[in-house]
Amino acid sequence: MATVSMAAEDKRWREESDVRTLAEAEKIKTDKTRFNAAAKRAKVMAADAMKEANAVKKVADKRIVGAASMKKKAAPAKRSTTKAKAKGGGAGKRKTRKKK
Fold this sequence. Notes:
Layout: H1 6-30, H2 32-61, H3 67-70, H4 82-86
């Protein structure tokens, strides 16, 4: 008996499997009830796949946020008004520039 390589054996098995799959598909195509049930199930499966794809897209669209930027930023320090008060200015008074 001749020794057949694994690659050749795998190729033969795949070909035979494809023949069985195609023969089964032909049976399904000619059976109206079975074909319609498969088409209905395909719509449900497609909807489920879309839900999954949308969930993955939401994750993909998120910005990567580092731990440091997650911390609350401190409020900016208030400016001192002591200089403005010493010069005669103060809250509510604005200096305006003259137009040239």
